[in-house]
């Protein structure tokens, strides 16, 4: 069966600040155990977290310069995954190696490319806003789900659920369910945008006077949401013929959220998120208030999606009935299906063909 996830993509393994120098960091992506460490030279290394000797986790090992030593029986690994030494014997078998992964530290996250490491393209890392970005005041968090990542992706691609799941937290009105957003396909994702006219806004965009409120996000492979929103003077949407405004022209209420969904194992996922105001549109107090709100709202999603997973598991040959709001879900899932198929299409020659 074709995998529901793309391998030739960058997945978030963790926060950059979680990776301590000289200390192995364990992660799980697509049910594959991975150990990540920063070598003495500063090089970032990601290897299969499974010693070739007796399958002990290398994440319990010790960094020695640029190398990693298994602390069960002492096998020493080079950054490319080959065994450099075995205590008590001079001969190291040719095939003594673990898998190497391409890894990158960008936008406050550690990213791992799950496909052929020689084909990893850092230009494909989604342009998230990192915690250290000087233009924003961001908080962050994460949640572990007992549910497939694709169910979380579906949730993030269909905001009609805001009207119902988040009626009490975000205070979302009926417009999210009763009207359709603008959706457009991207090369590696889907772009969502929506104007709400003559409104007092919601959550971070609350306004004492009527405004036109705009929100937009890109949802990118493998499951990364990058969203900004803001308030504009009343009449802006009509003046722009409901086209996208410039972020810099927003009068107030500009916030940015980066979210990433990483499948960690069978029916298990980790959901990373950051959120906060643009400088000049809020302060640390607003950031803290948004993070408190996010804790409630994202918890509401978690309850619903984990319950949904249980129903899916109990349903023989589960099928869904799409609605008008499923356009974004359909566009994205078709893209994932196409890219996943490319992952498993044999190359025309023995040499790997990077796509």
Structural commentary:
With 355 residues, the protein is of the alpha+beta class. It has two domains: 115 residues, Rieske Iron-sulfur Protein, CATH 2.102.10; 199 residues, Alpha-Beta Complex (Naphthalene 1,2-dioxygenase Alpha Subunit, Chain A, domain 1). The protein has six helices and 17 strands. The strands form three sheets. A seven-stranded antiparallel β-sheet has the order 11-17-16-15-14-13-12. Strands 1-10-9-4-3-2 form a six-stranded antiparallel β-sheet, with no helix packed on it. The longest helix is centred in the C-terminal third of the chain and has 30 residues. It is elongated, with a radius of gyration of 22 Å. It starts with 9 loop residues before the first strand and ends in a 12-residue tail after the last helix. 36% of the residues are buried.
What percent of residues are in strands? 25-35%
Q: Cα-atom Rg, whole angstroms?
A: 22 Å
Level-1 CATH class name of the largest domain = Alpha Beta
Estimate the mean pLDDT confidence.
93
Whole-number count of domains: 2
Distance between the termini: 21 Å
So, CATH architecture of the largest domain? Alpha-Beta Complex
**Helix-strand pattern:** EEEEEEEEEEEHHHEEEEHEEHH
The total count of strands amounts to 17
List the helices and strands and how they pair.
Blueprint (H helix, E strand, L loop, with lengths): L9 E6 L9 E5 L2 E7 L5 E5 L13 E3 L2 E3 L6 E2 L5 E3 L14 E7 L2 E5 L25 E7 L3 H9 L4 H4 L9 H4 L3 E5 L2 E11 L11 E10 L3 E9 L3 H4 L12 E14 L2 E10 L6 H30 L13 H17 L12
Antiparallel strand pairs: 1-10, 2-3, 3-4, 4-9, 5-6, 6-7, 7-8, 9-10, 11-17, 12-13, 13-14, 14-15, 15-16, 16-17
